[in-house]
Amino acid sequence: MTLIQSFGAAETVTGSCHFLQLKQGPQILVDCGMFQGKAEKHAYEGFGFDPKKVDILLITHAHLDHVGRIPKLLIDGFDGRIIALRPTMELAEVVLLDSAKIAEQDYATALKKARRRGDEGEVKEPLYTNEDVRAVFDSNIQYAEYDKPIALAPDVQVTFRNAGHILGSATLQIDFKEEGQAKTVVFSGDLGNRNDMVMPSPTLVKQADALYIESTYGDRNHRSLEASIEEFREVVISTLNNQGNIIIPSFAIERTQELLVLIKQMYYDKVLPTCKVFVDSPMAIKATKIYDRYHKNLNQAAQELFDKDGSVFDFSYLEYSVTGSDSMAINEEESGCIIIAGSGMCNGGRILHHFKHRLWNERNRVLFVGFQAEGTLGRLLVEGAEEIRIYGEKIKVRAQICTINGFSAHADQTEMLHWMSKFEKLDKVFLIHGEPDKQVIFKQAIEDKLQKTVHIVKYAEEVWI
Ligand SMILES: [Zn+2]
Ligand SMILES: [Zn+2]
Questions:
Q1: Separation of CA 129 and ligand 1 centre (Å)
Q2: Which residues crowd ion ligand 2, with CB under 5 Å?
Q3: What is the pLDDT of residues 103-151, one digit of tens each?
Q4: CATH number at residue 282
Q5: Is there a single domain that holds both residue 310 and residue 201?
Q6: Which of 31, 217, 419, 448 might form a disulfide with 66, Cβ 3.0–4.6 angstroms?
Q7: Hey, is 245 helix, strand or coil?
Q8: What is the CATH number of the domain that holds 41?
Q9: With helix as H, strand as E and coil as C, how does the chain read?
Q10: Same-domain pairing of 258 and 245
Q11: pLDDT at 123
Q12: 61: CA distance to ligand 2 center in Å?
């Protein structure tokens, strides 16, 4: 029997970290993500296992909840091999450097406040610094390619399959032999949708003795993408025709690139009024360049855009606002702008400056295209706040606030059931990366529709397969 333990993304969506402990052969860690939101406190509690014992770290994709604690893993003694797709490592570098920077800034602010209170002993230092992030990319990295098995030891191999979630995202199929018997464990990673705007459909996997599948939206189905695209187009066209500006808070990876493809397609369909499209986020700009460089990993539609003019995203209306002064120059534009800026939930970043300059004007529109967590400024606006405070200044909300819900990089219940139904052999299903109430609904759906045995994995629980 082989032991698998989950030290993150167990009855929660963040902190992905699963430890496959083969009896003979390498000790394999799948992802090493950051705990976020309510689970953030766990980030300081240690890993729950000895990082020195890990031989190989496999990375499913570059989102912070899957890579965020890798620098800490190295600090705590991991010196094995890291295996991931090339674009995943490039995106991960952008993500981790940003995370280290934010942590250092937060630490400095918290320390200042604590000093004034006289209890600086309470402020926790960041988990890692910029240099610790650099050390990850100077370590022993091996690049995977989709569908090409990599031998980890005699009788142990891993195959990365496209998960269709974000650029470089993978489902991992790990095949090994134990006492002469062949076994397969599959980690879905975060799964995408079949009709994603930039990613190809997730690759179907044939067999698994144990499938560890994400369950973020296991309880529901998304609104149709077509209807959401239609709504997006309508909002953009009417706002621009009414001499207004559109401000879109957006996550740097995947959502920004989807929006750019949507807007560029409007341009080619000749329905986009003359305007200026600004990507005002250094992180989003870096991610967009990486997406462009790896356009061969994107879907057919994205590749066709690339073939047309040498870039999936660039076109004559698009401007990248790299520096702070580029960003400030946008304020001079009276109308006719689409401004895409971070952070996605408006709890920091350049979006705040655009709110300050544009929210008071009823001709403008703020367009939310992603989830807004409780306690964020984004959530306040979605819930209809009439005025907000930005850097201590009171700002009247006269701009129209719109929310479009159908964009998601995650498969919904129907999509995940479809993906699972294509396995020729599937023995046991284990649910990870989801909230408990949603997992219970998803478990029931899998049992009813696919007649499989399903287990909801608990933190550090010993699962023997
Ligand atoms: Zn993800
Ligand atoms: Zn995730």
A1: 23
A2: 65, 190
A3: 999 899 999 989 998 887 778 899 999 999 999 999 999 999 999 999 9
A4: 3.40.50.10890
A5: no
A6: 31
A7: coil
A8: 3.60.15.10
A9: CCEEEECCCCCCCCCCCEEEECCCCCEEEECCCCCCHHHHHHHHCCCCCCHHHCCEEECCCCCHHHHCCHHHHHHCCCCCEEEEEHHHHHHHHHHHHHHHHHHHHHHHHHHHHHHHHCCHHHCCCCCCCHHHHHHHHCCCEEEECECCCEEEECCEEEEEEECCCCCCCEEEEEEEEECCEEEEEEECCCCCCCCCCCCCCCCCCCEEEEEEEECCCCCCCCCCHHHHHHHHHHHHHHHHHCCCCEEEECCCCCHHHHHHHHHHHHHHCCCCCCCEEEEECHHHHHHHHHHHHCHHHCCHHHHHHHHHHCCCCCCCCEEECCCHHHHHHHHHCCCCEEEEECCCCCCCCCHHHHHHHHCCCCCCEEEECCCCCCCCHHHHHHCCCCEEEECCEEEECCCEEEECCCCCCCCCHHHHHHHHHCCCEEEEEEEECCCHHHHHHHHHHHHHHHCCEEEECCCCCCEEC
A10: yes
A11: 87
A12: 8
Q: Do residue 396 and residue 421 come from a single domain?
A: no
Same domain for 440 and 375: no
User: How close is the Cα of 1 to the center of ligand 1, in Å?
Assistant: 30
**With bands split at pLDDT 50, 70 and 90, how would you rate the model's confidence at 40?**
confident
pLDDT tens for residues 179-214?
Answer: 889 999 999 999 999 999 999 999 999 999 999 999
In this prediction, residue 105 carries a pLDDT of 92
Enclosing domain of residue 14: 3-220+410-464
Of all ligands present, the nearest one to the C-alpha of 192 is: 1
Does residue 78 share a domain with residue 48?
A: yes
- Ion ligand 1 residue ranges (Cβ < 5 Å): 63, 190
Ligand 2 centroid to 205 CA: how many Å?
20
